[in-house]
Amino acid sequence: MAITLADAKVGMADKVDQMIVDEFRRSSLLLDRLVFDNAISPGTGGSTLTYGYIQLNTPSTAAVRAINSEYTANEAKRVEKTAKAIIMGGSFSVDRVLQNTSGAVDELAFQAQQKIKATSNYFHNLVINGTSAATGAGYVTGTFDGLKKLETIRKNEKVFLANAGFYTLETYEQAVICIVREYEGEKLIGLFNFSEFGKMAWINEDDGMYRDLITGKEMKASGVMIPGNGFFWLKKEK
Q1: Contact at 8 Å (CB) between 198 and 225?
Q2: Quick one: pLDDT band at residue 12, thresholds 50, 70, 90?
Q3: What are the phi and psi torsion angles at 203 (to 5°)?
Q4: Pairing state of beta strands 2-3 and 36-37?
Q5: CA–CA separation, 130 vs 128, rounded Å?
Q6: Mean pLDDT on 59-73
Q7: Residue 51 φ/ψ, nearest 5 degrees
Q8: I need a labelling partner for 166 at 20 to 30 A (CA). Which of 57, 88, 101, 187 fits?
């Protein structure tokens, strides 16, 4: 079930928990608007930090048939996917004497507020500079893939140059757009799904195999299923 921080706060009885959620929301417009999946449930005894799910890989199709003929069998194909969560945050300690004599400034509340700000700032850093890889100059390694990975790909691929050829393909799906860029014999197909649900791009580029620049996976640019709010950068080599 996908929820926002505002949704999460509703079911919290503890006022401290509510305060912490409010602080995170005030500290970052991104965190306030970000949608979370509550797939990991701490304290349930059976949960792990690896989130497994099933993704539709090839959809089923339909057709018409003549009398005394049969349909050609076609089954939907699914693929198993996993995503590993990372732990982010921090800790602090306040001596009970300091807490009891903190006066007008509540020391515990002050430290919590500053820790939330630090966590929020670090999250924004990872959104840009994070990478799940163990090494990488200029990256925060061992975290999650940030926008800098896309920036690096754009810098290294000629098809993203300003003078590259550009046109669009019809996808026959309202939520999906397809942009094609070509330069010196190289071709890139960008597929973008603006729906929260998986959608099919009904394109049919039958000129060989393509490689997704994000994952490195090879695939055909024909009848491409795109995850909700997902995208592909499919490159055809010379």
Answers
A1: yes
A2: low
A3: -100, 165
A4: antiparallel
A5: 6
A6: 87
A7: -100, 115
A8: 57
CB atoms within 10 A of CB 176: 20
For the chain, what is the total number of helices (H) and then of strands (E)?
Answer: 6, 10
The number of residues making up the chain comes to 238
Is residue 140 within 8 Å of residue 126, measured between CB atoms?
A: yes
Tell me the CA distances in angstroms from 15 to 12, 23, 33, 115, 118, one per residue in order: 8, 12, 22, 18, 21
Q: Are 85 and 52 in contact (CB under 8 A)?
A: no
Contact between 186 and 200 (Cβ < 8 Å): no
Encoding tokens for residue 145? 């893939």
Q: Which two tokens stand for residue 55?
A: 């993704």
pLDDT at 13: 63
Higher pLDDT, 107 or 201: 201
Q: Which element (helix H / strand E) includes 19? A: helix 15-27
Instruction: Give, in degrees to the nearest 5, the angle at Cα 136 between 135 and 137.
Output: 130
Largest CA-CA distance found in the chain, in angstroms, rounded: 90
- Per-residue pLDDT band at 16 (split at 50, 70, 90): low
CB 56 within 8 A of CB 199: no
Residue 47: per-residue pLDDT: 62
Task: Provide the pLDDT for residue 128.
Answer: 92
Contact in structure between 191 and 230 (CB atoms under 8 Å): no
**What does the CA dihedral 22, 17, 132, 238 come to, rounded to 10 degrees?**
-40
Do 88 and 121 meet the contact criterion of CB atoms below 8 Å apart?
no
Q: What is the CA radius of gyration of the chain?
A: 24
